[in-house]
Amino acid sequence: MTLKQNWQQNRQITLASRPVGAPTPDNFKLRETAIPKPAQGQVLLRTIYLSLDPYMRGRMSDAKSYAEPVAINEVMIGGAVCRVEQSHHENFQVGDLVVAYTGWQDYAIANADELLKLPEQLTTPSYALGVLGMPGLTAYMGLLDIGQPKAGETVVVAAASGAVGSLVGQIAKLHGCHVVGIAGSAEKCHYVTDSLGFDACLNHRDSNLAEQLAQQCPNGIDIYFENVGGAVFDAVMPLLNASARVPLCGLISQYNATELPSGPDRLSQLMGLLLVKRIKMQGFIVFDDYGHRYNEFSQAMSKWLAEGKITYREDMVQGLEHAANAFMGLLTGENFGKLVVQVGPLTLAK
Amino acid sequence: MTLKQNWQQNRQITLASRPVGAPTPDNFKLRETAIPKPAQGQVLLRTIYLSLDPYMRGRMSDAKSYAEPVAINEVMIGGAVCRVEQSHHENFQVGDLVVAYTGWQDYAIANADELLKLPEQLTTPSYALGVLGMPGLTAYMGLLDIGQPKAGETVVVAAASGAVGSLVGQIAKLHGCHVVGIAGSAEKCHYVTDSLGFDACLNHRDSNLAEQLAQQCPNGIDIYFENVGGAVFDAVMPLLNASARVPLCGLISQYNATELPSGPDRLSQLMGLLLVKRIKMQGFIVFDDYGHRYNEFSQAMSKWLAEGKITYREDMVQGLEHAANAFMGLLTGENFGKLVVQVGPLTLAK
């Protein structure tokens, strides 16, 4: 998968086969096709930044879910920042930057109503895929609308150095909470406490995570922002306070699972815990549930960024041909910050 | 445990030992003590109706929970309708009817601020333990505040002939929902459809519950009011719609469990379901979470009762000496309607 861009053809990464367990290079295929031509009302887009996100693992499977799976031999889906290369629609000019769900490819055709034009004052366009995009909205709405944090409460955030978790914890700090992160390496933990300002951060690869977490949460846990599942949730469960809230936006530790873990069956234990502690656990899919509140989020987050109250880190991979490897690493926590692939140059000059 | 009331002594049923699994007669002990004397600011209460409710099973165990367990050799706790026999407080007169948490005994002392005086127009005082009391408030708030039913949605209610379930389904019907009950006998199911007006009712002892439930819920399930757990929840899970709500007020099928069921461990499966279907599952303890909204509930329910829109059934057991047997039967579904023990006569004439 080393085909280099020649700008005469359209490279596409397709789903070659469905993964069983963790995705492997065989599941992806790089192919070249002709650059498509826009019809009336359409534009031709060139991908600049492609967002890689854990939800894409779900779309590679054909298990019943909230969204249609990617079909075999179809282009992998994904959101991207693109530049308009040709326009057959009056609202878009060549050179405009837009966000669109064009997927893992160099070029794509899109209808004008599928595009979100980026504001010209956005100095770092890739932020539209992260802190000012889907991960940011996820953090903001999951924490504030479902979590309802109050000053002095304890908030625990898994995947704390990642795109969503890093924002959840910083927003919780802005609301006066005691914030404990959980991340996958000592280096990430240092970043979470020193650069992001969390009160503490624990390495989930340590053997005594449960004890460390109990020490860092002497008053229990009021909000657990869940995007990981598995052993981290096991450590969180006994510490959840009465009336705790568990916004649930991902379970990355489970995405590659091929079968259920062995017993005992703790389903009834979880329900019993929710009952006796009056806990709310709520899954959400951010654009379906909160898309209508994007502007509210965008204004708040832009202000925090401008004031230097939010720190945001990207893990930028160069070249579409590295997307599959980067995505496989995302599922095992190899990225450090929001994973973005730079597919094409930002400026028009070649 | 056949000691009869002589009105010279106070009979008390105490917790003799903690049950392992289902409670047995050995766990209870009937004893006689002197009738206590009220101090200044207190009243002497005589129990008329004692409420028996599933939550009491939890208080018999010393597992960590939202409330302190009953201590060994202490009187079993419980809400009751009582008559004031002596009053040393200006707000209460001999003969007043009150609700108080006096427990399983003939007489008790209470402070004035622990009493809720019943309105004189309440023609059936025992209703204060059911349709107009804790079970009614549980049904009303769980369904309306957590469940947020909309006309045309499908609501499934377990323990549909019981104190809470019967009200949940009828309130859901008043909100235009398609309501399917689940109960433990053909006789109960007939009552649920014919007298309570549910659209359908299934017997959870039938072997093909899951298939029958799917047939009765052709559009899936939008609200599942959970007070049972176990096999009923297993049948409900695959039918839950996107954005479904699961108010969780009890898990009676689990209360006597001594260990977790064997595997596989479906905890992650449940969380995955909540995630991809954006489901809210929320436990609640009604007086802690909704006590401040009792008046709103009481007005609405009193109006429905007066208009004949709510049907309510009691299962009245005669005599405190039968309380333990009645309670053990409650946990296996032997009662039919709200279980109440008539401990003393309603009228003052002896």
UniProtKB/TrEMBL annotation, chains A, B:
<feature type="domain" description="Enoyl reductase (ER)">
    <location>
        <begin position="23"/>
        <end position="341"/>
    </location>
</feature>
<dbReference type="InterPro" id="IPR045010">
    <property type="entry name" value="MDR_fam"/>
</dbReference>
<protein>
    <recommendedName>
        <fullName>Enoyl reductase (ER) domain-containing protein</fullName>
    </recommendedName>
</protein>
<dbReference type="InterPro" id="IPR013149">
    <property type="entry name" value="ADH-like_C"/>
</dbReference>
<dbReference type="InterPro" id="IPR020843">
    <property type="entry name" value="ER"/>
</dbReference>
<dbReference type="InterPro" id="IPR036291">
    <property type="entry name" value="NAD(P)-bd_dom_sf"/>
</dbReference>
<dbReference type="Pfam" id="PF16884">
    <property type="entry name" value="ADH_N_2"/>
</dbReference>
<dbReference type="InterPro" id="IPR041694">
    <property type="entry name" value="ADH_N_2"/>
</dbReference>
<dbReference type="GO" id="GO:0016628">
    <property type="term" value="F:oxidoreductase activity, acting on the CH-CH group of donors, NAD or NADP as acceptor"/>
</dbReference>
<keyword id="KW-0560">Oxidoreductase</keyword>
<dbReference type="Pfam" id="PF00107">
    <property type="entry name" value="ADH_zinc_N"/>
</dbReference>
<dbReference type="InterPro" id="IPR011032">
    <property type="entry name" value="GroES-like_sf"/>
</dbReference>
